[in-house]
Amino acid sequence: MFEHILIGLYAGLAYGTTGYLKSLKKDGSFEKFDPYKFLQSIIVGGVSGVISAYMGWTLEAAQEFVLNTGMVALIENVKKFLWRKFFKKLIEFFQ
Questions:
Q1: C-alpha to C-alpha distances, 46 to 39, 59, 76, 86, nearest whole angstrom
Q2: Cβ–Cβ contacts within 10 Å for residue 60, how many?
Q3: What's CA 8's distance to the chain center, in Å?
Q4: Where along the chain do its domains lie?
Q5: HEC string of 34-56?
Q6: pTM for the full model?
Q7: What DSSP line would sit under 3-30, residue for residue?
Q8: How do residues 76-92 score in pLDDT, each as one tens digit?
């Protein structure tokens, strides 16, 4: 299980790094680095590693890395949707 989590963390690291790199602007500069956003990607990668271990996937390390990278993207997008659609409004309602 530890190996699955570690690979998931690496996948989150890769996703966070490439996400930052894709923020390259037309003038050649990058958006301001957000460590909170970057750390979320790594944590989500770890969660995807736990899920892969729980499901008992026995893929080779390279295949598992690619799978976890895809899971990171999926979980990130679902998390953003849920936050924007439900939780943000709920918090605003109680303020």
A1: 11, 17, 12, 24
A2: 7
A3: 9
A4: 2-93
A5: CHHHHHHHHHHHHHHHHHHHHCC
A6: 0.59
A7: HHHHHHHHHHHHHHHHHHHTT--TTS--
A8: 877 877 777 677 777 77
